Amino acid sequence: QVQLVESGGGLVQAGGSLTLSCSSSDSPLSMYALGWFRQAPGKEREFVSAVSWSGGQTFYEDSVKGRFTISRDNAKNTMYLQMSSLKSEETAVYYCAADLSRVGVSSNYFDYWGQGTQVTVSS
User: Fold this and answer.
1) What residues in the chain have per-residue pLDDT under 50?
2) Rounded distance, CA 121 to CA 88, Å?
3) How far is 66 from 61, CA to CA, in rounded Å?
4) What angle do CA 89, 92, 97 make, to 5 degrees?
5) What whole-number distance in Å separates Cα of residue 59 and Cα of residue 53?
6) Are 17 and 86 in contact (CB under 8 A)?
7) Residue 27 CA from chain centroid, whole number
8) 92-106 pLDDT, tens digit each
9) Which residue among 37, 69, 75, 119 has its CA within the 20 to 30 Å range from the CA of 43?
């Protein structure tokens, strides 16, 4: 079982940028497909982005295409989500997720989850 730790969340003004990181100190993330999900207060967890084991395949939720970029550095055992042109409605807890055998846009594809990092976008 992999322990995932998110970082980089915080308070940013609408239109601003933020970069989230996801890392593990106990497992090589290169073994896992990785993803980002978010959950706003009172709403269900939703898919944001995902990346395959080598980084060759990426997936994005339609509303973040062109503004968010997912990447991974397996040598640093870290995944990133670069977010720009942030909107107030994107205020949420952002979760990192991992799976050994599947990559996709559903939370059902991921078996391991971090604790989340809060992103607050002020209008």
Assistant:
1) none
2) 5
3) 10
4) 130
5) 13
6) yes
7) 18
8) 999 999 999 888 888
9) 69
What's the CA angle centered on 43, arms 113 and 60, to 5 degrees?
60
CA distances from 36 to 78, 106, 117, 123 (A): 13, 10, 11, 23
Identity of the residue numbered 89: E
Alpha-carbon span 26 to 28, nearest angstrom: 7
Q: What is the DSSP string of 67-95?
A: TEEEEEETTTTEEEEEE-S--GGG-EEEE
Per-residue confidence (pLDDT) for residue 1, from 0 to 100:
85
Query: Is residue 27 classed as helix, strand or coil in its secondary structure?
Result: coil
Query: Cα(96)–Cα(79) distance, rounded to whole angstroms?
Result: 9
What is the three-class DSSP state of 19?
A: strand
Q: What is the pLDDT of residues 39-56, one digit of tens each?
A: 999 999 999 999 999 999
Give me the half-sphere count of Cα atoms (radius 13 Å) on the Cβ side of residue 24. 24
The pLDDT value given to residue 50:
97
Distance from CA of residue 2 to its chain's centroid? 16
Beta bridge partners of 122: 13
Q: Which amino acid is at 4?
A: L
